[in-house]
Amino acid sequence: MERLPPNRRRHKVPAERRKRVAKACDACHIRRIKCNGQKPCATCQASSRECDYPSPQERISISRPIFDSMMRSEKLLRSCLATLVPSPQARLQLIEKVRENEASVRMVEETATASADFDSEDLIDGGRFLSDPDGQSRFIGGASGAAFLDQIRQFVICISAFLREVDEGYQRVLIDEAFGNLLGMYQTHDSRLLELPQVDPYHLPPCEEAKRLLLPLCTSSNTNDQIKIYFWGPIIELVQEIYYPAPGTDRRLDPITLATFNAALAFATQQDTIATPESGREYYARATIFLGRPLEATTKRHITCFLLLGCYLFGEHRRDGAYSYIRMAGHLAVTYGFHQSQATGEGQKRLFWTIYALDRSLSGLLGRPPMMNDEDISVALPVASPGLPDPDGLRLHAELAKIVGQAVERIYGYGGRGSRTPELTNILDSLDALEKWKDNLPQSFDLSACSISTSSRDLLSLHMTYNHAILIVTRQPFLLAVRRKVAQSFVNSDERTLANEALINQCSAAAERNTQLFCQLLEANTADAMYASTIDYHHAFNAALILDLARLLNPNGMTALQSKVQVQFTITMLEKASQRGSAYTEDCSSVLTNLHRFIEELLRVLSRLGDLKTVKVTERQLLAFDAMNSDDLEDQVDVQVTSITGALPMAQSDIFGEFMSWLDEAIL
């Protein structure tokens, strides 16, 4: 029987002549319609739909014996788990916890892999790209506290990897999970939509309640409240205009007045001891309804509204949102010439300098360039004017903001003009400018002459801003000193002292003063007074970071004990504030608690190793570690470092290389 000829192979159709693509987008696939395979495809583009394609899935093939072996292993492991944890509910909770930890590790590893082509260390000004909890990566400059905190996390992770091997009692789980998972990240809610309630835009609170909330933002007849470091415009006139309108006027026809009024109320609720966060969101929702589409049509009257909305978002843990609103207020102020001397009234002048001070504060907080250069500003500083508060508070605040902006520019720079190791000259010049500012303070701004009961909140906040400026200027060499001190505890090397130890003392002294001022601020608060603002908590948090690290420089001194008490006090106050619904203080208290726990563990290990007179690794051995890799050296420093939770693996040479780099860092 003759065999049939083989079937002819089908002619391969070129891709450009095919009737259908190999993979359609999700929208076309669901609707069973033709897709051209482009991004976006023609159908989705015509229908204004999102055009998403399924992610490619990697297929693997294994042999049947390997598959059967894996199934038997899974069955055996499940049986062992059931024996160890008899309760089904407890088993499910344990499995879920392990899955969450694995997911967080995978996310950090993917982030590290994605950023492999661009190392944040390549940014010569010390800035870095940090991810928020939702995975969005943002640039954070070297002057930012978030960048400084990330350096602390790197320090903690390196030391933690070493301590796990030299001390069996080291609490790895509690500390590594807290810091390892957050390396390369920072806390903000800017990627999340603010959940706003459904509100009646024309609803008004009782007049007396509105006056009580807005009184701290207005000019007060109380002499204790005459020191004002901000100017919010004619807030009290808004109350008069809304609650007691002139005959024949309709408040519904003036949306910007109602928007500014509700924005002021939203901001005021964050600093009030009675108001709830929910009421603040209601006021914010009403303000945004009346604001409409501000990028299309704005006037001078929008400036105050933008300014207040930015301050509110800062208190809601949304720094980028606050940055945008305050920049919009500054853009409008420049548009209408508030930055020029000609035809600028005293009220407009004060409003501009308030924007200037807040912009410089947020620019330093995020490590980003300021709104405009000082050379482009010709408007004079505030002066005394009838019907307005005393100008000294705002004037001094603006002068301090200018000094801080110039210090950040010289020390950290923008666009690659700074350095991770700032020059001593720039630091000393900035400290001299700050000292000169303090020496020229009027007598009424001298804190030593004020008691707790007579201290204005704005006065205390101004001095906290001054001390925080010293921290910004000196905390980089301070961290260098801490790292060198710790490295010397583990490595035999020549004792190297700082050429300018006064910088370190100034940094820790400023942190101690800010903690005392924060305590004084809270003691001065009553049920009728303003509560501590978000920026006050920010200053207290950063001061506590410095005080906790300072304990490593002199663990056995009285200062270390005092610093411990002050840090614990700050943690307690942050936890107390978080109970009022503040996400920012909740994150700060968590970070500070975990760092404090690590410092306690590190001091305990250092004390134990000192009592045992443990032989340290010599500098020469560390330098020869990679080249020699001998059995004798491995016996002396047998550190089998594995990947800690959330951090990349650190080899032995990596840890020792870090120690050596800390010892060799430039001595200021």
From TrEMBL:
The keyword DNA-binding applies. PROSITE patterns: ZN2_CY6_FUNGAL_1, ZN2_CY6_FUNGAL_2. CDD domains: fungal_TF_MHR, GAL4. Keywords: DNA-binding, Metal-binding, Nucleus, Transcription, Transcription regulation. Residues 24-53 form the Zn(2)-C6 fungal-type domain. One of its GO terms (biological process) is DNA-templated transcription. SMART domains: Fungal_trans, GAL4. The keyword Metal-binding applies. GO terms for molecular function: DNA binding; DNA-binding transcription factor activity, RNA polymerase II-specific; zinc ion binding. InterPro entries: Fungal_SecMet_Regulators, XnlR_reg_dom, Zn2-C6_fun-type_DNA-bd_sf, Zn2Cys6_DnaBD. Gene3D superfamilies: Zn(2)-C6 fungal-type DNA-binding domain. Pfam families: Fungal_trans (PF04082), Zn_clus (PF00172). This is Fungal Zn(2)-Cys(6) binuclear cluster domain-containing protein. It comes from Penicillium ucsense.
